Amino acid sequence: xxxxxxxxxxxxxxxxxxxxxxxxxxxxxxxxxxxxxxxxxxxxxxxxxxxxxxxxxxxxxxxxxxxxxxxxxxxxxxxxxxxxxxxxxxxxxxxxxxxxxxxxxxxxxxxxxxxxxxxxxxxxxxxxxxxxxxxxxxxxxxxxxxxxxxxxxxxxxxxxxxxxxxxxxxxxxxxxxxxxxxxxxxxxxxxxxxxxxxxxxxxxxxxxxxxxxxxxxxxxxxxxxxxxxxxxxxxxxxxxxxxxxxxxxxxxxxxxxxxxxxxxxxxxxxxxxxxxxxxxxxxxxxxxxxxx
Length: 292
Known about the structure:
The chain is mostly helical. The chain contains 14 helices and two strands, in the order H-E-E-H-H-H-H-H-H-H-H-H-H-H-H-H. The chain has a single domain (63-290), classed as MetI-like (MetI-like fold, Orthogonal Bundle), CATH 1.10.3720. The protein has a two-stranded antiparallel sheet.
């Protein structure tokens, strides 16, 4: 009995419909809201149509582009450090050595902590007067105003994000390493490949797609980073750590300018879509298969 070729798609239809509604409905509402001046507490009928004024304001708003620049600086350091440390630790703990299971368990614990709690932990640790970090620094020298200096505040939020999310990269890369075909590894050793050549010429190229997926997921999460930065610095001192997601949050819930906040959200979505498309094209496994 032959099965209609459209039957599998019918089974997928409910899940696709739910995902489409969860994506398209908020996107439609954001696009519509971006053309209006409306805030909390007002009736929807009291909204005022602005046309493209919010988009013109977005293009000419130096605060938005300063937040975009801050986001790229934050994202560059965070993603670079997390990928390097995560991949390095996965390579070190790949094999069964004494204590490796315990180290893996302890290492992934920060990933299980809520971002709000992470923000509070690091804020209290780096407090200029009562923080544990400055307490020990004061024993050997002078305390450092971690969250009061623009450069040090950026360093602080980068360190907190790396501390929490490096285990995510570590777990993905470790799973990929353990799934590599053993016969290829053994053949490489027989051919005389040393540890460095094994990693650089065998393991990492075979894990190219896994590494790009991990990179894509971390890039997306970086642009959504909010809670830890909001609790640790609130975007300060000044605006030195106000990333785009925090700027969006403050526009919506502090300034209560929902129309302009929706416009910023669309900008954030466009940036994420561009990054996602580029990385997905680079990691497309079908392109490699088509070359054979």
